[in-house]
Amino acid sequence: MKTPIVPVSAHPKWYVIDATGITIGQVSTNAAHVLRGKHKPDFSGHKLCGDHIIVINVEKLLIDPKKAINKTYFNHTGYLGHWSKTPLGKMMEKNPAKVIEIAVKGMLAKNRLAFQMMKRLHVIVGAEHKYAAQKPEPLTFTI
Question: Which residues have a Cβ under 8 Å from the Cβ of 3 and sit 6 or more positions away?
Fold first, then answer.
């Protein structure tokens, strides 16, 4: 019995998301959707078929003031009692790119491909990025 021929997917495309005035959830769900490759007709869960995502203007995300106080990020060093919690507002001041990275990582599948998918996510503070040679297209939100 012959196995079906699986078409080889083309090179990954590059997309740009401008996060100005958009919530964290909208940016991260669309980024995770494209990184996983679910927008393509030849999607398969066991192979890397997603595209590259560039997220710019991360410091201008739309955040509810109540959420900036109540949402906390936890970090543990591995030693007993060495854990810290950081509210979202302070995390946005210190490292706003990490907020999107944590959100997208939590939305990806928990398998061996997650690390490779996260390498295709490029989060940049500010409007200028160094990926102009790849000719990224603006991503319109579908979800």
Answer: none
